[in-house]
């Protein structure tokens, strides 16, 4: 039986930590950045933990 291929869109958007949590980039850092405060931009730029219900789906796409 052939190996399962990793979903190429998912591997660009998500990463799995050592403890098994799935991290994603938070939305809101693409446009209108001059309107947003520096404090807000700093907090938006941090990686965010994915919700547990979504983690199961993404791990399947990543083959983990």
Cross-sheet strand order for the largest sheet: 1-2-3
Largest beta sheet, briefly? 3 strands, antiparallel
CATH architecture field = Irregular
Number of domains: 1
Category from helices, strands and their pairing: alpha+beta
Helical fraction: 25-40%
Name the average pLDDT.
95
The CATH topology is: Factor Xa Inhibitor
Strand content: 15-25%
Keywords:
single chain; 3 helices; 3 strands; 64 residues; alpha+beta; elongated; three-stranded antiparallel sheet; Factor Xa Inhibitor
What does this structure look like?
The protein is of the alpha+beta class. It has a single domain, classed as Irregular (Factor Xa Inhibitor). It has three helices and three strands; from the N terminus they run αββαβα. It has helices spanning 8-13, 38-44, 52-62; strands at residues 14-16, 22-25, 47-49. The protein is elongated.
Topology:
Layout: H1 8-13, E1 14-16, E2 22-25, H2 38-44, E3 47-49, H3 52-62
Antiparallel strand pairs: 1-2, 2-3
In short:
The chain is 38% helix and 16% strand.
